[in-house]
Every structure is written in structure tokens, then in C-alpha cells.
Amino acid sequence: MSIVITGASGKLGRFIINQLLQKVSSEQIIACVRRLESGKPYEEQGIIVRHCDYDQPESLEHAFAGASRLLLISSSHHDDTIRLRQHAHVIEAAKKSKVDHLLYTSFAFPEHGSVSPVHLHLATEHAIRTTGIPFTFLRNALYTDFVGALDINEAIKKGKLSIVPGDWKFNSVTRQDLAAVCAAVLSEPGHKNKIYELTASAPWTFEDLADALSSLSGKTISLQPDPEIRNWIYGFLSKIDTTSTSSDLERLLGRPVTTLKESVKPFISL
Ligand SMILES: NC(=O)c1ccc[n+]([C@@H]2O[C@H](COP(=O)([O-])OP(=O)(O)OC[C@H]3O[C@@H](n4cnc5c(N)ncnc54)[C@H](OP(=O)(O)O)[C@@H]3O)[C@@H](O)[C@H]2O)c1
């Protein structure tokens, strides 16, 4: 069995490959990278590295040759129309390469969202279905990294976390938890034609975040609702489904998701 992974040089790709190495031998993994030099650390671990650029369709068929399982990690391009074209190149090449199983890192509950990235993810899922290749949609929740856009270090300094008022709830999780499940699904049988909503099993709230920051900093952090806040992140959060949850992630992980306190720790510069 050979497992081919695109976006292998990215943060999620690196976490997935680290987890995969605990489950399969390095010769079974093919890391696809846009710049071959970013694959050097993989080669040193005995992993095959191939060139793959979503914008260069001619690079893709060779990259995917012999793949039993191909994981398409969604493109990081900022323009969703371009991402759609890039993903179409990958999907077409997967079909030509006769890939046995195509897995895709989508976004959780995309039908409930109204921003262009969720339309892109749904469009990609539909495009994958046109191929007839058995698929798995790994619908990743929002990464908890988004807390980095909430001025949490300023909140610790002031003892107050300013938020836009509202009944906010978050199903976000860490990349590491998502990567662990992606690696498990890639290395096990039984996941063909399945859709997994990879969110926290229970949502967390801004009260929970204030508690986590208080515990991490040793200071009391209280919430300060402020309708005047101008922060782009709230516009985005209000147009995706951050509330719905599923037990898929914890079931596939076989353990609870990383706690909020542990998840926000890397974003605190005390
Ligand atoms: N769920 C969420 O909250 C969330 C948040 C942000 C992003 N995402 C999505 O999740 C994906 C993975 O996240 P991440 O943290 O690993 O992102 P990342 O660290 O930015 O990695 C993106 C990967 O995509 C590769 N890539 C970009 N354009 C490419 C192209 N034209 N051809 C081939 N490879 C290309 C990059 O290669 P290089 O190293 O050469 O640039 C890199 O390996 C992102 O790409 C994005 O679609 C999800």
C-alpha cells in the first residue's frame, strides 16, 4: 500500500506524516511537495518525495502514480476560485492515475456556511464524487489557532478579554488532533465513501476561554463585551458553522480532544 500526501510541507501535512510514521513503514509514504528542497527532511527518514504543484497539472500524474490512497490537503491559496481550479487539477490527475481511494481535507458542516471557502470545499467534494473514485471527506473544524486573532496576550495584560457580544460557541480543535485522525483513516481499512465531521464533541465558549487564560496566566481574566470592536475574524466566524458538533473526531481518535487550555498555550507569550 502506498499513501500519497499533497501539501506535505505544510503544518497539517507534517503533523499527519509524523503520525503516519507510527503506523506504517516510511517506504509506504510518498510526500508530495511544491518545492523539492522542502522534502529533504522526509528523504532523511526514508520517505519518498515527489514534486507536485497544483498549478502544474503535468507534475501531478507522476506524483500520484501507484497511489493506493491519495490525501489531497486543500490548497492554501487566498483566492478560492484559483483553489477550485487547483483542486480540479488534482482530482483529474487522481482519476488518470487510477488512484484507489481519494481523501480530502474539507471543512466541517460546509452546508451551513456562507463564505467562499466553504463553497470551495463543497465544490471540491462534488468534483471528487464525479470521478467515481471511493472517497473520504475529512471535514476539519476551524483550527483553534484562530484565538491568535483575538488579542489574548493583550487580554492577559489588561485582565479583560474584549469580545463582540453574542452567543458564541466554538467547535474548533487543534491541527494535531485532526492530523492524528487523518493518519488513522489513511492507514486503516473501512473508511471508503465516508464523511467525517471532525469537530470538538462539545463546543467551548468565551467564558471557557477566559477561564483557560486565567489558569494559564495566574491572573483573573474577565470578559468585556464590546459592540464597537472592529476585528475581521468576527465577520468570518459569523458566516461559518462554529456551533454544530459531532463525536466523529473523538471516536476516531479513541480519546478526548486536546483541552482548550492546552490548545491555547502555544499562542500565549508570557
Ligand atoms: N480548518 C481551518 O481552520 C483551516 C485554517 C487555515 C487553512 N486551512 C486549510 O487547510 C490546509 C492545510 O492547513 P495547513 O495549516 O497545513 O496550511 P499550510 O501550513 O499553509 O500548508 C499549505 C500546504 O499547501 C501547499 N500548497 C500551496 N499551494 C500549493 C500548490 N500550488 N501546489 C502544491 N502544494 C501547494 C503548501 O506548499 P508550500 O510549502 O510550497 O507553500 C503547503 O504544503 C490549508 O492549505 C487550507 O486550505 C484550514
From TrEMBL:
The protein's name: Quinone oxidoreductase 2
EC numbers: 1.6.5.2
Gene, per the UniProt record: qorB_1
NAD(P)-binding domain segment(s): 7-189
An annotated Gene Ontology molecular function: NAD(P)H dehydrogenase (quinone) activity
Keyword hit for Oxidoreductase: yes
Keyword Oxidoreductase: yes
Top-tier EC class: oxidoreductase
Domain of life assignment: Bacteria
Alphabetically ordered keywords of this record: Oxidoreductase
InterPro entries linked to this entry: NAD(P)-bd_dom, NmrA-type_oxidoreductase
